[in-house]
Amino acid sequence: MMLDTKLYLLDTNVISDMMRNPVGTAAQHALLLAANEPSSKVCTSVVAQCELLFGLRRRTSPHWSTQYSRVMASIDVLDLESTVATHYADLRTHLELAGTLIGPNDTLIAAHALALGATLVSGDAEFARVPGMQVENWLASVASEK
């Protein structure tokens, strides 16, 4: 990966929205990003993929499997590297001491984004409590951000 590549790590709720709404705001953001920032890269964490696959097991509809495959065809899934462990431990300790814990999977996803230096794309407000986290909400209206 090139050093000037900006990473956008998609959270589970953003990918779910892209599955439900192929022309919705999250999908529009991804298209605008591809057109306006060609050196950027859209990806997700294997942790988000785990959550999505769990959701698919609970909804055994061929429609959702097809939608999942369609969306994931353009999103790289990144494995957790060993550097995520330090970020996770530091982040969880900080949040615990502050009394502002977030869910365990969200903590892993946040640590993954921090380790990568990626912008986390999520509709979850709880990520705003993560120190040093760059967050964008692609579930908000594209027009409202102009």
What is the CATH topology descriptor? Rossmann fold
How many independent structural domains? Answer: 1
* H/E element sequence: EHHEHHEHHEE
Q: Can you summarize the main beta sheet?
A: 5 strands, parallel
Spatial order of the strands in the main sheet?
A: 3-2-1-4-5
Give the end-to-end Cα distance, rounded to a whole number of Å.
30 Å
Overall mean pLDDT stands at 91
SS-derived structural category: alpha/beta
Percent helix, as a range, is 40-55%
- CATH top level assignment: Alpha Beta
The portion of residues forming beta strands comes to 5-15%
Question: Roughly how many Å is the radius of gyration?
Answer: 15 Å
Low-pLDDT residue intervals, each spanning 5 or more residues: none
Second-tier CATH architecture: 3-Layer(aba) Sandwich
- Classified in CATH, the superfamily is 5'-nuclease
Structure characterization notes:
The protein is α/β, with parallel strands linked by helices. It has one domain: 5'-nuclease (Rossmann fold). The protein contains six helices and five strands, in the order βααβααβααββ. A five-stranded parallel sheet has the order 3-2-1-4-5. The longest helix is centred in the middle third of the chain and has 16 residues. The two termini are 30 Å apart.
